[in-house]
Amino acid sequence: MRSAAPGMFEYQLAAVAEFVYLWHGASGYAFFPIVGSGPNSCMPHYHANGRRMEEGDIVVMDFGPDSGYYASDITRTFPVSGRFNAEQARVYRVVLEAQKAALRAVRPGATFNDVEDAADKVLRRGGYDRYKKHVIGHYVGMAVHDVGEAEPFQPGMVLAVEPGVYIPEKSLGIRIEDTVAVTESGCEILTGDVPKEMDEIEKLMSQDSHLMPISDGSPLAFSAPSKGKRETGIDGKPHNGLP
Ligand code: GLY
Ligand code: MN
Ligand code: MN
After folding, report:
1. 60 three-state secondary structure
2. Which ligand 1 atom sits closest to the C-alpha of 138?
3. Blockwise average pLDDT, block size 10, the chain, 243 residues
4. Where are the alpha helices (DSSP H) in 47-181?
5. pTM for this predicted structure
């Protein structure tokens, strides 16, 4: 999120994520990363990652490293320019509330239907239930969409919980996803260290810490310049951000 800036391409954000998890020892990605900005935010399994992101875009970033033969799966949605506009914030608030309600429903004996019902109640109340495009979640294991579907949860099972609202006429898709482990009394959010409250995201994105190659020809040298220091993108057009 800190590396995002208008003018970057979607694939550049995917590259930053991949650099970070490979750097930390992951063996690769669990699935091809999804970085969907603007209209692409409304395509849940978008993979092309080829669009140049523009001021005002929302970005759905869904990716997960594979580590020790196990997959992971996380989605965060954020405004590329670092501030949610009023409409993005309105939808985001409802999806986040739906995701929290869904997470509260994860416990031994519950099923994906119970989790989906909990999220749907919130989406319905917010008026966004007709903008769903996929089910609430899936098991995660050695495959990112691991086997199993209808059986009641048991402690130790790992699943992804990911409500989403997609409004194509507004180029506005919001999905929030965490991978969680079922415990004796509820669940532990394995991806919980990554901010998802709007104020936390805005604070993080206001920090100066672009992760970007510096232009001395060294592929391994990275710097953290102040936002706005670079004036042109790789195509020579001016923008506020990355190379
Ligand atoms: N990235 C695929 C999924 O979230 O299910
Ligand atoms: Mn995902
Ligand atoms: Mn998922």
Report:
1. strand
2. 5
3. 92 93 94 98 96 97 96 98 97 98 98 98 98 98 94 98 98 98 98 97 85 48 43 43 37
4. 86-104, 112-126
5. 0.88
